[in-house]
Please model this.
Amino acid sequence: MSFHYLEKSIFIRAPAVEAWNALTTPDIARLFFLSCEIISDWKVGSSLHFDTEVDGEMRTVIKGEITEISPRQHLVYTCFIPDQEQDPTQHIVVSFRFSEVEGGTEVFVTQGPFSNEDEKKRNEDSSETILNGMKVVIENQSGNR
Model:
């Protein structure tokens, strides 16, 4: 069986600390991360869950575990839909990497493995929406357009 991975990146006119804080602060992440608050204590081995409002109440729509973390540099976690927690074949790994460059930060995201190209494409669209939203939120908050 062949597995598929996706890689995306975006340049943000702000220091890595601002991109990191946007991703790890629930109230800010909700503005660009598909309306989800990302909840964790941000330590290796800790749970991670993505909560959003459904029918007037907060629900966890994605769960995972942090496998690597270096603040302002990189974050790696597993993720899955809650009812697929016991099926590791349905888990994917997501990696965010922050690299400061002249004038800002390059944010890289890698996800996979996906079992087919359609699944990869669905996640590519979401990743692009998240990265573009992250850029807009951070640059607008810091006045860097």
About this structure: The longest strand covers residues 57-70. Residues 4-142 form a domain with the Alpha-D-Glucose-1,6-Bisphosphate; Chain A, domain 4 fold (CATH 3.30.530.20). The chain has one domain: 4-142.
